[in-house]
Amino acid sequence: MPSTPFAFDVCGFGSINVDYVVSGPTGDPYFDELSEGEERAVDDPRTLREHIDGLKDPTQHIGGSAVTAIRALHALDRGLSLALVGPLGRLPAGVSLEELAGIDLSGLVGYDGEANACVSVVEGAERKLRPYNDPAGVHELLVAKREETVTALSRARLIHVTSLLAP
User: Fold this and answer.
1) 41 exposure class (CB count in 10 Å sphere: 0-12, 13-18, 19+)
2) CB of 20 within 8 A of CB of 62?
3) In the chain, where are the structural domains located?
4) pLDDT band at 166 (very low <50, low <70, confident <90, very high)
5) Range 92-107 average pLDDT
6) What does the CA dihedral 126, 95, 106, 129 come to, rounded to 10 degrees?
7) Which one, 9, 43, 96, 121, has least CB within 10 Å?
8) Which class would CATH give 8-161?
9) Residue 135: what are its φ and ψ, rounded to 5°?
10) 115-129: buried (b, 16+ CB within 10 Å) or exposed (e) per residue?
11) Distance between CA atoms of 70 and 62, rounded to whole angstroms?
12) 25 upstream amide cis, omega within 30 of 0
């Protein structure tokens, strides 16, 4: 295979979340009112946090659409050189970037605030999502650290762009 100037085969570019996954129904109308397959963005992270605190034993892990895509590629072919570029706030206890071993994380840009969050309520084969993406993280990534972000993205042969902002 000919050599290329690219350090990475694929780079995921998007919000880095903490995903809270729970089986539904949850008994909380905040989540249960959503239709199957619906994703409804959250404006106030404090409201989302209050409802997360009321969930029974959600699993927590690093997530977001970019993370999910890159993890899937990593599972399919360990020979691929993969990276993530995106905003990352403070992680809660019990959640670690070690989950992403084997994926280059040098393009993650930290910001002062809690990590973005998404609650996924799974019912059978369907899910309902409540995401929150902090605009401060996107600002840090695209404005304050613009040159670093562009440099990180330019190192990839293919860029998978997804969910920097909530829908």
Assistant:
1) middle
2) no
3) 8-161
4) low
5) 94
6) 20
7) 43
8) alpha beta
9) -60, -25
10) bbbbbbbeeeeebbb
11) 12
12) yes
- Written as six digits, the tokens of 94 are 């019990």
- pLDDT value, residue 69: 96
Amino acid at the residue 99: E
Alpha-carbon distance 126 to 64, whole Å? 17
Q: How far is the C-alpha of 115 from the C-alpha of 14, rounded, in Å? A: 13
What the block records as the tokens of 109 is 């840009």
DSSP bridge pairs for 11: 83, 159
Which runs of E-coded beta strand occur in the chain? 8-13, 17-23, 59-63, 82-90, 104-114, 116-123, 126-132, 156-161
Q: What is the pLDDT of residues 115-145, one digit of tens each?
A: 999 999 999 999 999 999 888 888 888 888 8
Reported pTM: 0.88
Contact by Cβ (8 Å): 22, 122:
yes
Alpha carbon 135 to chain centroid distance? Answer: 14
What's the token pair of residue 7? 């350090």
pLDDT at 107: 93
